Batch of 2 targets.
Target 1
Amino acid sequence: ADVIAVTGSASGIGAAVASSLRAIGHEVIGVDLRDAEVCADLSAVDGRKAAVSGVLERSGELDGLVVCAGVGPHVPDPMMIVEVNYRGAIAVLDGLFPALRGAAVAVSSSASTMTKWAENPISRGEEAAALAEAGQYAGHLAYSWSKNALTVAVRQRVSQWGAAGVRLNTVAPGAVDTPLLQAGLGSRFGDAIRNYRAPISRHGRPDEIASLIRYLLGPDAGYIHGAQFLIDGGSDALLRPTEF
Ligand code: NAI
């Protein structure tokens, strides 16, 4: 059996990944705020260190890693979105990289494509100031910036990780029916989420994202490295047919 660490394992997509890996006999080390093998807060430097050391205490080597923990655009403090979705995710990827011998997948978002890196304030370390001026759109901007920065950071690691024989990819879901999406529907961004209609006119299911993640972790994906996979019911092609 493989040993695979999964952040955000207590809910939604991460929970679907963890249960489906366990169902095929793998050992999962879940990391989350609660209900996990390793309970740690990835929004803070100390919590990130505790997450990495907690995983390594349970297994010195990992066959796989899924970085899924994240918060949605609706949370009250937009800097929290950047700290969890971007800095927390990267700290876990980099912290566990030396222990990895298989593959890792980071859960980004279709929102990662809605910002260009050159226009992303995170690229200049200026997101706090930019968010302070963003008004009611701060949550959405922070979310898009955090996921754009995460995907860029993954792509910037291809040489180092490839040389070590560890594959690293992102999945970029559209709207997936999870507690995070439900919380967004109940917030002031609810109408924007409801109006986001994919050509496949329903929300994705967590198990549909989990099956792509399992494929990317496994031996059949041996030449896939540094790639981002949209899994969005066709929304990206609908919105931007000529850009890819
Ligand atoms: P969810 O809310 O069901 O699960 C997220 C998990 O992350 C929760 O268990 C939560 O406790 C954990 N988490 C949040 N903050 C944390 C922190 N500071 N430290 C440790 N763990 C923390 O959400 P969902 O939808 O399953 O999201 C999983 C990932 O998928 C997130 O990164 C999200 O941004 C991404 N995503 C979700 C989409 C959706 O429509 N549901 C669309 C695109 C991306």
Target 2
Amino acid sequence: MVQASETLQVQHDLPRTPRITYRMAEPSSLRTESGMLAALGFGAGTADCDDPRWLRVALECFDAPAPLEVWQVDADVVYGRDEEVRWSAGGGWLFAALELDERDFGGIEQTARHAYTQLRRFMSKRGGCCVLRIWNYIADINHGAGDAERYKKFCDGRAAGVGDFFANGFPAATAIGHHGPAHLLQIYLLAGIDAGCAVENPRQVSAWRYPRQYGRTSPGFARAMLMPARDALAISGTAAVVGHASAHEGDLEAQLHETLANLEALLANADMPAGFDTHSPLKAYVRRTIDASRVREILQQRLPGVPVLLMHGDVCRSELLVEIDGWRF
Ligand code: 3EB
């Protein structure tokens, strides 16, 4: 948590957070532009490319053609592969990504466990990098009932693979269901040489303290991460959760307004100025295709000028219809 006594001025001696932008481009810009740490494409229609810094996310974007998400640093970037992990590094930053087929490991729980074991092993080889932000995209996330729901099994496997790796604090995270290739688990992360500062939401119970009804293993993530130089806040997947309960079941608009209230509460608790602007790329994950245009309308009204990608994705609780994550620069 951010202490009230701390001054939240930008720390110019620490590496500036990578620039994160959406733009119409091709994966070839990874070669032609400098400082490219990563580029993400969205959906099956996106070009493919075998550069380790490229990831084609299995979520479809409701905006066609979809822009790429580009991560850029003010430094030279090196990159490579290490077993199943693809990575890049430069300017004190590290991108790592992993794509696994669940059939190779015997289910989502074992696959999540393997993924996080691999990531932990890779990170420890990199020596002292801090994981600040992680994205998890999971097929059929709400399939199964009770503790057998696939998201809950993912949480079990993630915790087993993580072990004590996040003992000093969880990173900010997103876990969303994709409608792409069955059995595909995609995970990517941003790490840095310097530590960030985890930020919780006073309107919400911290996820790692969720009561038993949400699964055997509480999800290990922080609501947001203030980046080391304090020049940006990385915001976890945020939905209409108040306390630990889902609010406004069946009411898309009320869920969206509650989500925006949660985002504002996070900014306030991080001592960031209220509101989002043109430098704050967000993603809205929408469960039902039929809701996409209404979500776009409301967000254009409530967050004018803010770059928002509308993604077709399932929130990890089946009653939740929309979730938002992103950055406040
Ligand atoms: C919630 O508020 C929504 O399991 O990593 C949001 C962000 C959610 C990350 C995760 C789950 C995760 O509980 C769910």
